[in-house]
Structures are given as C-alpha cells and as structure tokens.
Amino acid sequence: MIQIIKNIQFIIGEQTKLLVKPLLLAILDAFLNMFFYGVMILGIVRLVERSFTRDFFIQCVFFLTIVFVIRLFLSRFTYNSMQINGSIIVTKLRIQLADHVRGLNSGFFNQNSIGKLTSNFTTDIADFEQVLTHNFIDFFKAFFMVTIGIIAAVVIDVRFALIIVIMILVALPLLIVGGAKGNKLAGTHREKINDVISRVVEYINGIKTFKLYQLSGAKFQRLDQSFNDLKKSAIKVELSLIPYVMVFSTIVSFIIPVALVWGTYLLTNEASSPESFIAVLILSISISGQLMAIGMLYPQMKFIAKSADNLREVLSAKPLNYQVDALDGANHAIQLEDVSFSYENGVPVLKNIYCEIPDGTTTALIGPSGSGKSTIIHLISRFWDVRSGKLTIGGVNLTTVKPDALTKHISCVFQEVYLFNDTILNNIKIAKPNADHSEVVAACQAANCHDFILKLENRYDTIVGEGGSTLSGGEKQRISIARAILKDAPIVLLDETTSSLDVDNEREINQALDKLMEKKTVVVIAHRLNTIINADQIIVLNEGKIREKGTHFELLANNDWYAQMYQEQVSARNWVI
Ligand code: ADP
Ligand code: MG
Fold first, then answer.
1. What span, in angstroms and rounded, lies between the C-alpha atoms of 569 and 567?
2. Which of 57, 222, 426, 562 is packed most tightly, with the most Cβ within 10 A?
3. Over the stretch 54-99, which tens digit does the pLDDT of each residue have?
4. What positions does the domain ABC transporter occupy (predicted)?
5. Which stretches within 416-502 are classed as H helix?
C-alpha cells in the first residue's frame, strides 16, 4: 500500500497535491457515512427500549435527508474533482514521459523494444488513468470507512474491536499473497502484451517483404503464437486472483455472525449493554461490507502498482546530462581524441580514434562494411556518448552539450529516409518550421525535387503515405536532402546512398548532395569516387581503427588499402565501395 503510494508519488511528483482534495473529500464522505450508521444505531436502540417517538422519527428523517443530500453532492464533487485532477495528472504524465524519452540516448531504444515503449505509452498510462480516476478514491474511501469503523468499535467495546482486528489480520495475508502472485503474473502478462505489439508492428512494417518472400505463413504463425500466449496469460491472471479474493471475502463476511455470537455472549453475561450490542452488530455490517469492497478493488490497485512500476522504470532511465545549453561558437571543427566506443553488448567497435575535421572542410569516411563508419556519425550526432576519450565540436566536449542544442547545428541525411504521413510541404518544413514557401521551393530546387513535386496531384500539398510509402526511394532521398538544405546547419552528416538507383535519379541526387555540402563542415560516409577524390581528408577505417588518413594523393602515395582499391575500381570503371 505504502509502496503503491510511493510509486504514484514518484511518477506524478509535485502533482501528488492534486490528489489531496479528492482524498480529503473522501474522508469527509466516510465520516458522514458513519452518521448514517449512528442514526441507525440510535433508532434501533430506541426501538428496543420502546422509546421510539414520532418526534424522534421526524428528527431522524430530517437529519438523514440532510446527510443524504450532502453526501450526494460530496460524492459528485469528489468524483468530478478526481476525474478532472486525474486527467490533468495523466496529461502532464504523458508529456513528461515523452519529454523524458526524448532526452534519453538512442541506446535506450535499442535495449527496449518498440513493443515495450508502445505499451508504456498506451497500456500503462491507460491503466494508470483508469485506476487513478475510478478505483483509487473508492479504494481509499473503503479503507477510511473501515478505519473509522474500527475506531468506533474501540470506543464502544474494545473486546469486540479486538475480534474484528484479529479477523482482518487473518484475512489480510490472503490479499497480500494473492496480490504478490497477481503482480508477478501481471509482469509476465505485460511481457506478452509487449510481444504482441512488437509482432504486430513487425508484421505491418514488413508486410511487403513477407509477401515478396512468401514468408507470410511463417510470420503469421509467430503472430498467432503471440496472440495465443496472450490469451493464456490473460486467463491465468484473471483466475489466479479469484481464489484469494473469494476466501478473503468469505472470512470478512464472517465478521457479522461472529459479532452476533460474541455480542450475544457478552450480553447474556451482562458484560455488555443492549445498546453496545446493537451498535457493534451494525458496525460489523458496515466494516464487513467495506472490507469486501477492498477485496474487490485490491486487484485493480495492483494493476496501478504494476503500471506505476513500469512507468517508474522508464522515468528512472538516466537522460543524457549536459551543462551547456547552447552551442554558440562559429567554429564547427570536430575533433576525436582517443575515442573508443562499444554498443551495449560491449564488443569494441571504435578503438582509440584520433582525428580532426577542420571547420568548413569535407571528410570522407571509407572502409569495409562494419568498420565503424556509421558509428562515428552516430557519436557526432550524440545518439550515443563515447565510452572513453573525447569528442568535441568547436572545442566543446559533446558530453556536456544539450542534445537539442546540438541538433540545431547538424543536418543528417541517412540512407533510410522516414517521411511522416503528412504533406510534402510539412515534411520539408520540419527542418525549419517558420520557413516561408519561397524558402521551401528554393531548397527543393537545390535538391532537384521541385520539378517532380510540381507533377504530383496536389503539388506541395500532396500527402505522402506513412514513411513516405507513396514516393520512390530516389524521390524520398531528394526530399530529405531538401530538408537538410532548408535547415542550413553548419555541420552536415551524410551517408551516401548505395542503393541501386536509376542513372537519372543518381545524377540528380549527386547534384543535390553537392549543393548541400557547399561551405559546410561535412562528414560523409562516401561511396562516390567524386566525393572521395574531392574531400579535404579521407579516413580509411578498418575494424574500428584508422588505417589511413590523408588526401586522395597522399593516400595514393601511401600505397596501401586505398591505393589498391582505387586501382581496382578505376580499372573496372565502376567505383562503388
Ligand atoms: P559501418 O557503417 O562501417 O558499416 P557500423 O558503424 O554500422 O559500421 O558498425 C560497426 C560495428 O558495430 C559492426 O560490427 C556492427 O555490427 C556493430 N553495431 C552497429 N550498430 C550496433 C548496435 N546498435 N548494437 C550493437 N552493435 C552494433
Ligand atoms: Mg554503415
């Protein structure tokens, strides 16, 4: 219970104060509820004593009506305030979660599959919201009512109160054990949900490939299997809690007969008055009813605990830290000093890299596949931080720079282009949201995509499918170059395409790339002979180490890997690395 509140508090932080008002209202309601029982007890006592007068009856009716009306409003008010505050809390939580995830380094997204994050953003938050706005207050109200009931019982007759407490203590472990079991199962259940989401996403993304390679049967089987696993686990979760809740309810429902027997015993031995006997009996009815409500709501509270746990895990993931809010300097020279890096699996990918990329120059990275070229580009964009050594831009250590501040200075054009399911105009303008139309057109002209855009049905307002699925690879590539040109960032990170494009497309893309690279500090994973020869510096990587470094002519003179590759490719007249 305390853990639940602690987790909720950790997640919603300062907003916990929004829960205070509904909780206070619930306590007030619980007190008023006791008035009902109080009046009922008085009434029955009068009946037994044969002193139940008409006046007393009218007083009771009057009093009960007032309490009833107050409770009616109070209930509504509590409910409304919980709904409204709950929505505020959850909205802020969603924003906070999104902000938090944005600040994490990309490594986080590798360890955590899409399924898990999707489920954090959908299922966990939805569960959290559902329980917070619906069951949370009911649970605590029942809890207060039981507490007040026990206090009243202590006042009336300590011996009786003791018996109720003992029965609760006997029944409670059942809920705790059942809850712990439910918690464990809820964990595996959540994994199954994540698995289903991952499979569905995989299936939808890969549907073309599956069809092409006739994999749909095998892939469908995996999808079916994950659905079946989910079904089994859902049934298991539901069934596992039932026995515990049932036995708990049975035990607490016995509070009433036990009160009757114990009360009768005390009464016949004249150790108690008829008034206390009646009061005790009615209290036992109230307490037992509320305990049953707790039993029913407890599994729900466990759900919020599980969701809270999951959300807590995401929120506890350490964001990239930074001390420098903005990268102001005019100098965008990039320097790697003794940089080593490995991904989460710990396999060294870059080993003691030293290199300097002077401001306004182009550096071409070449080398066999897997030699670490893309990794260097990822480190410069701070997708990950270096494990050791130092990576600086304009002399500022990247590990101290706010990721958003860094992105402002960098344009990336990678091989895989992702376009949003939106108009072409908006897809380009994400690079510079306040750009006017003429700027966008100028960028598109420079990127050789203006002409084909004009031929589309709605020109710049044509909506491209999700991921840009209605455009060809070459067209998407040029749009991504137009984006980068529009952004006009001083640093350009480029992964030249190797995908086989038709000759026209290739020429147009090459021209566009040349435009983009003009006067910038460029790091390019180069595949075109032209880019490589014209680069100010060529770095040849091999197995995470720099094998050669220099200009085209220096490397030719070096007569190593580069010279050999160059000779081979030139004689074949077909330079593609
Ligand atoms: P290149 O771009 O030169 O082909 P990369 O920089 O992509 O090479 O990869 C260098 C090495 O790092 C490869 O051995 C690759 O398998 C490994 N690698 C790349 N990305 C990851 C990742 N996210 N997790 C683990 N290993 C990775
Ligand atoms: Mg690569």
1. 6
2. 562
3. 888 888 888 889 888 998 898 888 888 888 888 888 888 888 888 8
4. 334-568
5. 424-429, 437-446, 450-455, 473-487
Mean pLDDT (whole number) for 369-386? 87
- Higher-confidence residue of 213 and 353: namely 353
Domain boundaries for CATH 1.20.1560.10 within the chain: 2-315
Ligand 1 binding pocket mutation candidate from 113, 350, 374 (most atoms within 8 A of CB): 374
Distance, in Å, from the CA atom of 250 to the CA atom of 257, rounded to the nearest integer, reads 12
The rounded percent of the chain whose pLDDT value lies above 70 is 90
Distance 370 CA to ligand 2 centre (A): 7
Residues of the chain with CATH 3.40.50.300: 323-409+522-577
Cα-flanking dihedrals φ and ψ of residue 154, to 5°? -60, -45
What is the rounded distance in angstroms from the CA atom of residue 163 to the CA atom of residue 153? 10
Token pair 């497309």 is at which residue? 505
Q: Architecture of 323-409+522-577 per CATH?
A: 3-Layer(aba) Sandwich (3.40)
| Whether the predicted pLDDT of 125 surpasses 70 | yes
Ligand 2 being an ion, which residues bring their Cβ within 5 A of it?
Answer: 374
Average pLDDT over residues 292-298: 85
Residue nearest to atom 24 of ligand 1 (CA): 343
Ligand nearest to the CA of 541: 1
- pLDDT reported for residue 504: 65
Topology of domain 2-315, CATH: ABC transporter transmembrane region fold (1.20.1560)
Contacts of 407 (CB under 8 A, 6+ apart): 381
pLDDT reading at 208 higher than 80? no
Paired strand residues for 541: 546
Q: How far apart are CA 502 and CA 539, in angstroms?
A: 29
